[in-house]
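Working notes for the structural subgroup meeting. M.R. asked for a predicted model of this chain before we commit to crystallization trials. I am recording the input and output together here so anyone reviewing the notebook later can reproduce the run.

Input as submitted:
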Amino acid sequence: MTRRLLAVAAISLPVLTLAAASDRPALVPSREASVLYRVTNADAAPIEVRTTVAAGGSPMRLDMPDRTYMLVDSAARRMAMVVPDEQVIVEIPYQDGPQTHFQLNERMRFTRRAPGTVATVRCTMWDVVVDNARGTMCISDDGIMLRSSGVDEAGRRNLIEAVSVSYAPAPADEFVPPADFRRMVATPDGPVLAPPP
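Returned structure, recorded in token form:
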């Protein structure tokens, strides 16, 4: 369980706030989309991760290779990690701002480059800088990040690239955690049982 929490932390971003250029892409999807990404980091083997996001950017679901998935609901200010193999839901303290590398945000500074195509979807290439991290992104007109390549604040090189994109509506329960799973709360010392509702 602790290893899963560390894996989630590895794709988390710190709280980011305000400030942006006038010429920039759409920062949230204008319609529901499901995207299968291949994620390549310098110090790990590539993995495939699927994100499903509602129009407007919330709620969002992030499916990991081991069947664990994250649910992020900005409107309700809730985050949870669902572990089907253990029938557990771990509630994670919500933070304002983007929660994963798959979310764009207003602190990013964009410089428009050339048009491109990723996974058969047209997008625009942008140079992107945020704090000490920099790279390039190809972002569709409807606000879907299709490719991100660059160096993070720790100097690690990474690549996130869409393999496939679907705009088909997600099942009604896609963003709802199972009602019969045990609930736990993430703490600095590890997850503990959640109090009764």
